[in-house]
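TASK: fixed-backbone design
INPUT:
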């Protein structure tokens, strides 16, 4: 189906990328082996809508629930893959121009100064405080609620077959938005302001009791250097909002509220440049457009 094909294409593209550029990719055997394994598993997966998905008459409750869980994993596995594909960006982001690592970030600083008069992190620094810091980090953390919660909600739906059109559209939208960001990172490598030691030395440290330390702990363990422009957080969040909008308007409004806060929080928390946000929004809109087009082709074409 359509989503399987674009995931296959991206998986194969990265595998083909690391082979000729292996001298510039520190863990290229691991990345190549992982991508080849993913390709093999995807090819071996049973087709969507296969007979095993339908429960047998009189099937035990536990078997029915286990089958339902397997079906959800079968249809939603591309979202899980995005976690691994995002983490490997750190290894591939400078593969094309190893002599000029993160060369694109100077352009982002220049663009922010041109648009805003100075860097947003500097302009927002006087506004920091305990309440604001906690609120913005809470919005940043809502990314997980939007993406995971939005996809699960679209699967559960309301009185429709699973997977229904809402799930097909939402999942295809968010995964496409992710891949549109990932494919650009080796061509436009850039780190966020938070990795600029000289800049951060002049900034007021963030305060917080709950969300600030949670987000900082997550980034300390899973942050990726170089995957900054476009913002995949913004892209994926708005892709979920737009994917849900046609089917679950109330859920889309709720996710849209958090996505709006997240878009601001990406800049306030210094994890992104100002221009990363509209670029991510454009990727999210493009992903949603692809998801809507694909899901209209046939009942299962979006998945």
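OUTPUT:
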């Amino acid at each position: 189906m359509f989503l399987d094909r674009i995931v296959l294409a991206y998986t194969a593209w990265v595998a083909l990328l690391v082979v000729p550029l292996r001298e510039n990719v520190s863990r290229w055997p691991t990345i190549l082996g992982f991508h080849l394994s993913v390709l093999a598993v995807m090819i071996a997966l049973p087709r969507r809508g296969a007979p095993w998905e339908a429960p047998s008459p009189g099937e035990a409750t536990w078997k029915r629930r286990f089958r339902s869980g397997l079906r959800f994993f079968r249809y939603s596995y591309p979202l899980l893959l995005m976690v691994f594909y995002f983490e490997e960006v750190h290894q591939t982001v400078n593969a094309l121009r190893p002599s000029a690592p993160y060369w694109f970030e100077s352009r982002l600083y220049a663009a922010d100064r041109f648009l805003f008069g100075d860097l947003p992190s500097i302009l927002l620094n006087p506004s920091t405080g305990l309440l604001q810091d906690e609120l913005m980090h809470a919005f940043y953390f809502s990314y997980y609620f939007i993406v995971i919660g939005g996809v699960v909600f679209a699967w559960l739906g309301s009185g429709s077959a699973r997977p229904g059109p809402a799930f097909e559209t939402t999942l295809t939208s968010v995964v496409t938005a992710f891949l549109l960001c990932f494919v650009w990172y080796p061509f436009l490598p850039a780190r966020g302001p938070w990795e600029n030691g000289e800049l951060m030395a002049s900034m007021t440290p963030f305060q917080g009791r709950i969300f600030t330390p949670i987000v900082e702990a997550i980034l300390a363990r899973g942050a990726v250097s170089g995957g900054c422009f476009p913002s995949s957080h913004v892209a994926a969040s708005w892709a979920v909002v737009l994917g849900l909008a046609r089917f679950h308007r109330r859920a889309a409004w709720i996710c849209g509220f958090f996505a709006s806060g997240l878009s601001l929080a990406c800049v306030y928390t210094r994890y992104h440049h100002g221009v990363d946000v509209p670029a991510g929004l454009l990727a999210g809109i493009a992903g949603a457009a692809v998801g809507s087009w694909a899901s209209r082709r046939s009942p299962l074409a979006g998945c």
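COMMENT: DSSP finds 13 helices and no strands in the chain.
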